[in-house]
Each structure stands twice: as C-alpha cells, then as structure tokens.
C-alpha cells in the first residue's frame, strides 16, 4: 500500500486534471526537483555536472521539442539538430555582438529558430510521411549551409563563434555549478510549460492529427495552424536548447556539433525514451548521454581501456540496435515500460 | 424553396457526384427538418455515405446546392461546416486510436474551446477554468453513454462496439445542431443496438439534436425514425414515414432486387 490509485478518490475534476494525479507522483516530482536543485549541486563533482548532467538536461529539452512534433503531432523530422544550430548561432550573436542579456539572448535564439521552423513546416501542409521526412532532411543541409556561408553569422566559411564570458543579472556564470543552475532554471519551466501544452487543447489537437488527420479536420481542427504550431513550438525548444548547450557545454558555436548525426541522436532519444511522452524525452536524453559512459565503465570492469574510435563504433552499434529493439518490441519506449511497471506496482500485491 | 413549416434545417438540392464514370449521386434532393430523426436507407453502394460526405464537406458536388439554416454550404470547407454545428460519425470507426476515450471526446469539443497558447502552457486562469468546464460537459456525455469504466483506456484498445459508442460520444460532445450518423449500429449485437438506439432517441428528445442516420437494420429504422429517405444507385426512390416506406412498391423492388435485406 505504497503507490496506488485506489483509495485516492478525486473529489473534483480539478484534482483529476492536476499534472500528477497520484499524490506520490506529485511527491516524486517535488523530490526530484529538490534533488535537482539542492542535492545535486552540493554533491556532484564538477565532471558530473559539466560533462553529464548539463548535456543530459539540454538534450532532453531538445528531445522534448522533437517529441512535440514527431511523438505528439506525428510529423517526422530528421533535421532537428539544424534548428538547434540556428538557436546556437543567433543567441551567441545576440549576446556576444549586441550585448543583449543572456536570458533574453536565449529567448531570442529560440524565437528566431521558431520562425525558421515554421517556414520549414510549410511543406507539411502538403506532404506527409516519407516525403516530409526527406524535406526535413533538406532543412538540415540548407540550414547548415546558410549558417556557414552567411558572413553576418559565422564571419566567413566554416566559422566558429566563441562564447564570451557569461553573466546573468550581473553575476558571472563561470563555474560548473552555476552553469548547471542556469540550465536547470531554463529547462524546468519549459518542461512544465510543455507538459501543460501536451495535455491541453493543443496537445489533443496534435495527437488527433497524428492518429487520423481526416477525422481531426472534420471535427474542426485546423491542420494548417496546428501543424505549423507544432513546427514552431518544437523549433523554439530546439533553438533554446541549441543556445543553452553552446553557452554551457561546447563553449563555441560550431556547426559540426549540430550535424545530421545529432539529428539522429535526437530521434533515437524519443524512440528509446518514448514517443508522445514528456517523461520519455528525459529518459531518452539521459540514456543517450550516458551510453558512452556505460560502455566505458563496462569495458573498464573487464580491465580494458577502449580506444576512442572503438568506443564511438560500439556506441553506434548499440544505439542502432536499441532503436531497432524498441521500434519492434516497445514502440512507446522506456516511458511505457515505466508506466507498465508502475501499473504493476499500483496493484501490488493483489492484482485484480 | 419549400415553405411548408418554415424553411427546413437542411436542404439538399439536386446533388450530383461522380467518381470517374460512376454516378454516386444522380440529382438527389431532400430536406431535413429541425428536431426530426431522418433515416437514410438503401442497398449497398446506393450513395448513402456519399450523401453524408457531401453534406459535411468531405466531397463537393459537381452540381447542386446544400443549404444549412439558409446558408449555402456547397463550397465551404469541412472545418467551416463543423463550426456551423454539423457533426458526424463514420461508417468505419474514425477514432484517434492512440488517445484515451476521455481525450477523444474532449477533442469533440475542440471548436468550443479557445484559450490561447500561453494560457494553456501556464495552465492558470482562463485555460484552467475552460478545461475544467469542458471536462464536466464531457463527463456528462461519458456518464450518459455508460463508458465511465473505460475513460482512461486508449481508444484503439477497445472492442468495436465500444469504439462506435465512443465515436458517438465524440460527435455529441460537440453539441451539434445536426448529427449525421453513418451506420452507428453496424456489426453490433441486439443488446448493443438497443443501447445505441436509446442514446439516439435520448439525444433527439433531451438535447433537441436533429439526426440523420444511415442504417441497414430495418427494424431499428422503423422504430426510431420519423421519416425515411430511400436511395438506390444514386437516385432517391422513396421518401415518407416508415409506414409509407414499408408499403412503397419501388422500395420493395429495390430491396428484393439486390440484397435480400428485410
Ligand atoms: N472515393 C470514392 N472513389 C470512387 N468511388 C467511390 C468513392 N466513394 C464511393 N464510391 C462509389 O460510389 C458508390 C456509392 O458509395 P457509397 O459509399 O456512398 O454507398 P453506400 O450507400 O454508403 O453503401 P454501403 O451501404 O456499402 O455503405 C459506390 O459504388 C462506391 O463504390
Ligand atoms: Mg456507406
């Protein structure tokens, strides 16, 4: 009698519609937030903060953005890393060149990316499935090309733009802990916002379009606006994530950090983590970020130190294998496994 | 125009639809009056579904006009037609399979909801009040259709009969003025059919919804409809009260001539 739904009677719909309907879920979230904001910064090493937790959080945010588009609205995008690149360059230029405050620069990067995403979303009004996927692939290459060849952005061909020292409200963001807090304070509100979106009217419209667009339209859901909005919101999240990862992890905007492989990684995150699940985006982000470390540790346990190229190769093989595994065995990813486990626990020890 | 008892709610005038060389509807005219239950019957391939499709704007007729409350629907998009108060169900269930029953029916109220994006994201104030208000309406529909127990089940996991029921709920949740039902009882057993018939009658009497329904089961048609229209090969071959239709020579011939449905 620890974690269960029976015995929890919701007296009104407001309670039933709370983000986390079971008290323990709510407590779980409070505890996770407490750990994230209080415990981790004081106990995690600098290595963990800057090399694992920061990329985990930022990539989870980007995966969440992709999940809006692909998992919820059913529009496959295989060029999503390019949107991160737009956010990276724009927010860096705003901050470094025009001295816009850091948080506003991130916001600006997100907004410009949202506009770019909306433009690349226009084909989705005409084409679906495979053909749309190809058009998003084109987005990857077009954006990459523009970012590297437009002098205003990169300062020349294959330019890299370095991040200047960071400040928020006059405080220098110079240690891993501070960078971690910066990331957390962007990721948490955007995640809550996203959760509210997907369980509200817009999220339902997206899922309806995903499941059966003709019926959705007949009910009065505008395919035009909702698809465009899916691209816009999704790109906004990608753009913010792109800016954030550049400021707090890479230290410089470099187009290679957002190439097609990264787009595949993002897709892998939502496939493994769970399509159409906010929590799944974080599972996926964590899983993919930790994968190389797992492999390393594993090899370590057997007394071998892997060369980097072998490590990269193993990582790819595992990554590909896992994607195939999840697509076949559990299309809803880790999030569904988690739910199934919870459902079992909910009834435990008396399944009825 | 017909002025018998005020203008009818829906007027279909001389509608033609062709698919290649096939004439699915060949100059069909009919009227649906406010508050009635109209049954549309006819053998397989008669053009019944095509008629519903043309009323709610899935197909546009090559000739003819449709007026709903004196507004010309003929060239409007189905999105627009839905917003005027016409809802429908499909012959092959068209639920959103990955969404829960609750969410499916909530989607039915989409046109009635309108909080903005940011308000939805922050889920405070207007969006929250709106969500709760609509949830209450949807719960009423759920109670009424006796599907409380499957509220949180993904629609795709339900048996066929329940899916049809949920789809009826989704259409009713839109509080339409005119509800078009394409074979809502197809493939059901007697008990299920009786349930659906009762829901249709209730919707008509308690909510005042005007209903046009396509149905093959003559027993049901005779029991619940006020008027019947008979289609055959794209033509209207009969119209009248159930009693009149039962004794209509042409109708009997059409039915005996094709499938042997009673
Ligand atoms: N989209 C389409 N393309 C080509 N032919 C069509 C299309 N829709 C319907 N038809 C044809 O039009 C004719 C009328 O079809 P419709 O679906 O309206 O019949 P129905 O009366 O609903 O039949 P049933 O009782 O089998 O549902 C049929 O011959 C059908 O094959
Ligand atoms: Mg039909």
Q: Could you characterize the architecture of this molecule?
A:
The complex is a heterodimer of chains A (352) and B (262). Chain A is an all-alpha fold and 352 residues long. Chain A folds into two domains: 1-43, no CATH class; 44-347, ABC transporter involved in vitamin B12 uptake, BtuC. Chain A contains 15 helices and four strands. Chain A is globular, with a radius of gyration of 21 Å. The mean pLDDT of chain A is 86. In chain B, helix 3 (101-108) packs parallel to helix 6 (160-173) and helix 5 packs across helix 6 (160-173). In chain B, the strands form two sheets. In chain B, strands 6-7-8-3-9-10 form a six-stranded mixed sheet, sandwiched between helices. A four-stranded antiparallel sheet of chain B has the order 2-1-4-5, with helices on one face. Chain B folds into two domains: 1-85 and 176-262, 3-Layer(aba) Sandwich (Rossmann fold), CATH 3.40.50; 97-170, no CATH class. Chain A binds chain B through residues 13-14, 16-17, 193-194, 196-197, 200-202, 204-205, 207-208, 210-212, 214-222, 229, 276, and chain B through 56, 58, 78-79, 82-83, 87-88, 90, 94-99, 103, 106-108, 110-111, 113, 115, 117, 120-123, 127-128, 131-132, 135-136, 139, 170, 174. The structure holds adenosine-5'-triphosphate (ATP) and magnesium ion (MG).
Q: What can be said about the biggest beta sheet of chain B?
A: 6 strands, mixed
Tally of strands of chain B = 10
Q: Between the first and last Cα atoms of chain A, what is the distance in angstroms?
A: 14 Å
Strand content of chain A: under 5%
From the alpha-carbon coordinates, what is the Rg of chain A to the nearest angstrom?
21 Å
- Estimated structural class of chain A: mainly alpha
**Could you say which small molecules are bound to this protein?**
adenosine-5'-triphosphate, magnesium ion
**Overall structural domain count of chain A:** 2
Rough shape of chain A? Answer: globular
Order of H and E elements of chain A: HHHHHHHEEEHHHHEHHHH
Residue-averaged pLDDT of chain A: 86
* Number of strand elements of chain A: 4
Sketch the major β-sheet of chain A.
Answer: 2 strands, antiparallel
CATH superfamily of the largest domain in chain B: P-loop containing nucleotide triphosphate hydrolases
């Amino acid at each position: 009698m620890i974690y269960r739904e029976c015995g929890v009677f919701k007296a009104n719909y407001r309670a039933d519609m709370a983000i986390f309907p079971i008290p323990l879920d709510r407590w779980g979230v409070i505890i996770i937030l407490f750990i994230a904001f209080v415990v981790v910064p004081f106990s995690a090493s600098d290595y963990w903060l800057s090399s694992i937790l920061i990329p985990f959080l930022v990539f989870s945010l980007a995966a969440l953005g992709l999940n809006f588009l692909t998992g919820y609205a059913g529009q496959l995008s295989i060029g999503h890393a390019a949107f991160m690149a737009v956010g990276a360059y724009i927010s860096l230029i705003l901050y470094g060149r025009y001295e816009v405050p850091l948080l506003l620069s991130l916001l600006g990067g997100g907004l410009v990316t949202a506009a770019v995403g909306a433009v690349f979303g226009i084909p989705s009004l005409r084409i679906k499935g495979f053909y749309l996927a190809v058009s998003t692939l084109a987005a990857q290459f077009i954006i990459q090309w523009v970012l590297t060849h437009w002098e205003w952005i990169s300062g020349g061909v294959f330019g890299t733009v370095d991040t200047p020292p960071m400040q928020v409200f006059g405080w220098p963001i110079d240690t891993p802990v501070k960078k971690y807090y910066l990331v957390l304070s962007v990721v948490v509100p955007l995640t809550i916002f996203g959760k509210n979106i997907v369980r509200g009217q817009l999220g339902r419209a997206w899922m309806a379009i995903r499941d059966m667009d003709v019926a959705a339209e007949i009910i009065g859901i505008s395919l035009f606006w909702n698809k465009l909005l899916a691209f816009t919101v999704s790109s906004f999240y990608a753009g913010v994530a792109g800016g954030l990862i550049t400021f707090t992890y890479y230290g410089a905007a470099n187009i290679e950090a957002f190439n097609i492989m990264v787009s595949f990684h993002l897709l892998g995150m939502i496939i493994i983590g769970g399509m159409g699940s906010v929590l799944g985006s974080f599972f996926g982000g964590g899983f993919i970020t930790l994968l190389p470390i797992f492999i390393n540790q594993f090899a370590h346990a057997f007394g071998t130190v892997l060369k980097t190229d072998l490590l990269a190769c193993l990582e790819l093989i595992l990554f590909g294998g896992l994607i195939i595994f999840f697509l076949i065995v559990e299309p809803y990813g880790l999030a569904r496994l988690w739910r199934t486990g919870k459902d079992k626990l909910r009834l435990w020890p008396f399944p009825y | 125009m017909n002025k018998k008892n005020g203008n009818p709610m829906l007027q279909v005038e001389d509608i033609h639809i062709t698919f290649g060389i096939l004439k699915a509807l060949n100059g069909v005219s009919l009227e649906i009056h406010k508050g009635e239950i109209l049954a549309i019957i006819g053998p397989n391939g008669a053009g019944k579904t095509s008629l519903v499709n043309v009323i709610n704007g899935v197909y546009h007729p090559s000739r003819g006009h449709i007026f709903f409350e004196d507004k010309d629907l003929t060239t409007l998009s189905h999105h627009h037609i839905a917003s005027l108060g016409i809802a429908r169900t499909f012959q092959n269930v068209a639920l959103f399979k990955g969404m829960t029953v609750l969410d499916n029916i909530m989607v039915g109220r989409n046109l009635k909801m309108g909080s903005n994006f940011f308000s939805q994201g922050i889920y405070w104030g207007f969006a929250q009040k709106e969500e709760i208000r609509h949830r209450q309406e949807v719960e009423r529909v759920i109670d009424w259709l006796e599907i409380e127990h499957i509220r949180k089940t993904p629609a795709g996991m339900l048996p066929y009969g329940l899916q049809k029921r949920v789809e009826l709920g989704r259409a009713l949740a839109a509080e339409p003025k005119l509800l078009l039902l394409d074979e809502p009882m197809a493939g059901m057993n007697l008990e299920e059919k009786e349930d659906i018939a009762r829901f249709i009658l209730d919707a008509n009497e308690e909510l005042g919804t005007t209903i046009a329904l396509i149905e093959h089961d003559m027993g049901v048609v005779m029991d619940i409809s006020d008027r019947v229209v008979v289609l055959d090969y794209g033509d209207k071959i009969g119209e009248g009260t159930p009693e009149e239709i039962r004794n209509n020579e042409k109708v009997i011939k059409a039915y005996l001539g094709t499938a042997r449905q009673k």
